[in-house]
Amino acid sequence: MSTVLPRPTPSRSPWQILYGAAHSLRWRWYARRSNRLPRPVVSVGNLHWGGTGKTPLVAAIAAHLRDRGLNTTILSRGYRSRGRGVRLVSTGEGPLLGPTVAGDEPVLLAGMLPGVSVVVGPDRYEAGRHAMERLDPAPQVFVLDDGFSHLRLFRDIDLLAFPSDDPFAGGRLLPGGRLREPLSAVRRADAVILTGETELAGAEIASALRGFGFDGPGFSAPFRVGKPRLAAGGSLPEGARVLLVAAIARPQRFFEAVRQFDLDIADTLTFADHHDYPSSSLTAIEEAYQESHADAVLTTTKDEVKLLGRLDIPLASLPVSAEPQEELWVWLDRRLDQQMAAIP
């Protein structure tokens, strides 16, 4: 793996410049109108269209705050869920709603994080107010999932994730690139975090972004891939023949992670990111499973929450966790303590 981080260069395309200016105007409009919750908000977001490893990072940060003894609540949009309004997904004792109503990532986080509550809603400020009114004990800190572009809610600490294998997404906005905001938006971040399998230090991503107005620290958050585990319990046996199924932004990462284990990959099947697996997709999986003579379907943890109980075949998932460097926790705790000390 290369240990040299490519240096991004600003795009000179008229379309890219115009699109970037529109984003800048949007930020300035909301900078004077964002709503503030009565407790600190730690936002975890990205500039990419998916595939940054944000969910494991959110889980790691929420778990750290919980383990500090803080009542922690995750606020999420519940992307592509069919529920309406604000929904309480978890009080800290596991999911209360399914992925169709709450969204796949909130349900996944609710299952991963005992002691952490999860609330979803298109307006994260209203979701936070709901949490303050309904949860007992009330939240002491909020973690805003995928919050960098949700300017409606004021955030006290803004963390921005960059995937180590594609940190700058071509340096361009759609349609010519894979960025949802221009790299110059990084100046709004308090810290940047390099996620994934990397030999690079977090300081290198910070240095690479100095030319775009970023002046904060950088950290790294390597991923740890756990052994494939069966949904029914136990580990997937070594040498098992598996059908790989994924509906994530960058399925190739999942496929590559599986290859480090002693498994016989029979075939792969992919769907669009956040796919909700209608009956036709379930039929396609079952047919591919039968044709491949696989022992189990192996999928991501995000897909597992949508497939549990819906397939009459053995289901397994590949757990992935983020393990940020200790310096991130030192920096985050110090910043958060400053914020909490200022609360009346």
Task: Note the beta-strand portion.
Answer: 15-25%
**Poorly predicted residue ranges:** none
- What is the CATH first-level class name of the largest domain? Alpha Beta
- Number of DSSP helices? 10
Number of domains: 2
Sheet with the most strands, sense and barrel status:
8 strands, mixed
Sum up the overall morphology in one term: globular
What is the H/E order?
HEHEEHHEHEEEHEEEEHEHEHEEH
The level of helicity is 25-40%
CA radius of gyration is: 20 Å
Mean pLDDT level: 92
Task: Quickly give the CATH architecture of the largest domain.
Answer: 3-Layer(aba) Sandwich
- Order of strands across the main sheet: 3-4-2-5-1-6-7-8
CATH-assigned fold name of the largest domain: Rossmann fold
Write the layout of secondary structure elements.
Blueprint (H helix, E strand, L loop, with lengths): L13 H18 L9 E6 L7 H14 L4 E5 L10 E4 L8 H4 L1 H9 L4 E4 L3 H11 L6 E5 L11 E7 L27 E5 L6 H7 L9 E4 L1 E3 L3 E2 L10 E6 L4 H8 L5 E7 L8 H14 L3 E5 H7 L7 E4 L1 E3 L3 H16 L3
Helix pairs in contact: 4-9
